[in-house]
Each structure stands twice: as structure tokens, then as C-alpha cells.
Write a structure and sequence with these properties.
By secondary structure, this protein is of the alpha+beta class. The protein has a single domain, classed as Phosphorylase Kinase, domain 1. Helices cover 24% and strands 33% of the residues. The protein contains four helices and six strands. A six-stranded antiparallel beta sheet has the order 1-2-3-4-6-5, covered by helices on one side. Strand 3 and strand 4 form a beta hairpin. The longest helix has 12 residues.
């Protein structure tokens, strides 16, 4: 994680029960990734549980228009190994990405629990 990412980590501080972007009821913090903070949320409009990633301010020069282009490209792909993106947007000056919520163990937790992946698992 870069120094800039460490500096802005916690920039969002959404707590359980808060409504984000007028639509997503935060259930819990999942963690943070390379681009932002990730939350499990209930999409009150679509009535489903989703992952909401709120992007770090200035994250890689990301703009709403760039997110729109990427969303259009990703929607053309269909594969079990590709995360489905439901929506993108901006709220309170922050860009966000909404995707399906994948349950299970993170790669970090798996590596801490069992160590290095063998080549078959990695593929």
C-alpha cells in the first residue's frame, strides 16, 4: 500500500446502518483494496446485498466517465472468474463501484492460514 493510500485510509468511515448515496445501507466494513474501502451493503432500491467500494480520492486519476467506460466493457464479459459490476456513481464527492458480494475467505486470510499457494491453486 502506498503512503498516499495509507494517508487516506479511513477517509470514508461509513458505519453500520448509515445510508450511502441515498441507496446503500451499510451493513459492515469488509476491508480495503488497492483502490478504496469496501463495504457490505443492502441496496435498498434493488433489494439485494452488494459490495460497495468507495474509491480513494484521486485514485489513479479515476473519473466518473472512465468508470462508465470500464463498466460498459466489463458488462460485455461473462465468466465465473469475473466479478459482476452492478453500478457506478458519485456521492459526496467520492466515486464508488457496486458489485456482487462474494462470500468466502480473502486471499490474504488464505495465505496467512496455509501459506503459499501451489501452482495449481494459483491458476
Amino acid at each position: 500500500m502506498s503512503g498516499e493510500q495509507k494517508r487516506v485510509l479511513g477517509f470514508c468511515n461509513l458505519g453500520a446502518g448509515e445510508l450511502f448515496a441515498g441507496r446503500f445501507r451499510i451493513l459492515r466494513s469488509i476491508g480495503h483494496g488497492g483502490a478504496g474501502e469496501v463495504y457490505q451493503a443492502h441496496d435498498e432500491f434493488a433489494d439485494r446485498t452488494v459490495a460497495v467500494e468507495v474509491l480513494f480520492p484521486g485514485s489513479g486519476g479515476m473519473t466518473l466517465e472512465r468508470l462508465r467506460r470500464e463498466l460498459r466493457l466489463v458488462r460485455e464479459l461473462s465468466h465465473p472468474g469475473i466479478l459482476r459490476i452492478h453500478d457506478i456513481g458519485a456521492a459526496d464527492g467520492l466515486l464508488y463501484l457496486v458489485s456482487e458480494l462474494l462470500e468466502g475467505e480473502s486471499l490474504k486470510a488464505r495465505l496467512q492460514r496455509r501459506g503459499r499457494l501451489d501452482s495449481r491453486e494459483a491458476v
